[in-house]
Amino acid sequence: MTLLWKILLGILLIGRLGQGQDLLEEDLEKIAVDEGAEEGGEEVEEPEGPWTDVSQPDDRQPCAMWMGGVPGTPGHSGKPGRDGRDGHDGPRGEKGDKGEVGEKGDPGQKGDVGPAGPRGFPGNPGLKGAPGDSALSYHSAFSVGLKELVPATNVPIRFNKFFYNDQHHYDDVSGKFRCILPGVYFFTYHLTVYTKDAKVGLYKNDKAIMFTYDQYQESNVDQASGSIILRLEAEDEVWLQVYGDESFGGVYADNTNDSTFSGFLLYPAIPTPAQRR
After folding, report:
1. Distances from the Cα of 112 to the Cαs of 109, 115, 195, 241, in angstroms?
2. Nearest to 191 by CA among 148, 247, 252, 246
3. In Å, how far are 5, 43, 143, 145 from 277, measured between CA atoms?
4. Mind listing the pLDDT tens digit for each residue in 141-197?
5. What percent of the chain has a predicted confidence (pLDDT) above 90?
6. Which helix (H) or strand (E) holds 262?
7. Which of 115, 193, 263, 271 has CB 3.0 to 4.6 Å from 187, enough for a Cys bridge?
8. Quick one: CA dihedral 242, 243, 245, 249, positive or negative?
9. Neighbours of 191 (CB within 10 A)
10. pTM of model > 0.70
């Protein structure tokens, strides 16, 4: 059906083109006749009007006057036109509905440490801890005296009269107190001075810590004393000795006059894990 229509449309177009060419030729002939009549002075016969014989067909008119030509083939599509200018922004729309909650994102990087906050309120008291070691379980003490005049100087005084030495931390052979329990100790001495001056030093590990000097007054019995608190570690040693030559060896003792040396542990140096809060 499509091919038939194309043929009919082509015939119609050809007929219209032929009709237009015949009309053009007729007009040209009329112009030529009119010009010839004017030049020859001949009159042109006018048509008879309504009585003109029109029974004869006009051979110049094609049969295509009543039929149009076949339409031509559609042309190719033209190139797309350029983009138009951007339109003006439209009015702002109404607020849309709240969207659904999206998926949880990946954890971010750890941020910087923030500033310290204000101090909080005190917490509740903690549970009662286990009983610790009692300081009473650590004992170290001694108290000794002389029986006679000190025989030598610049050596430890050997006290040979015992008042208390249950732990045997004072050694009467060496004349020294040897620390067994680390901690803080108190030492004191009370000396009778007779027949000559006395100068006594208290030593810790071969180092003089303190001195006591008494100048003897003839026909008098003098007294000299001293005391000190020391922190000791295990194996530390403490003793008394006359300092100087024999002229300072006036430390004396008899049945009625005593010269004593004493010391005891004030509190032990308890190891940190065993200390109570």
Report:
1. 10, 9, 81, 66
2. 252
3. 115, 154, 34, 41
4. 999 999 998 888 999 999 999 999 999 999 999 999 999 999 999 999 999 999 899
5. 39
6. strand 260-268
7. 263
8. negative
9. 27
10. no
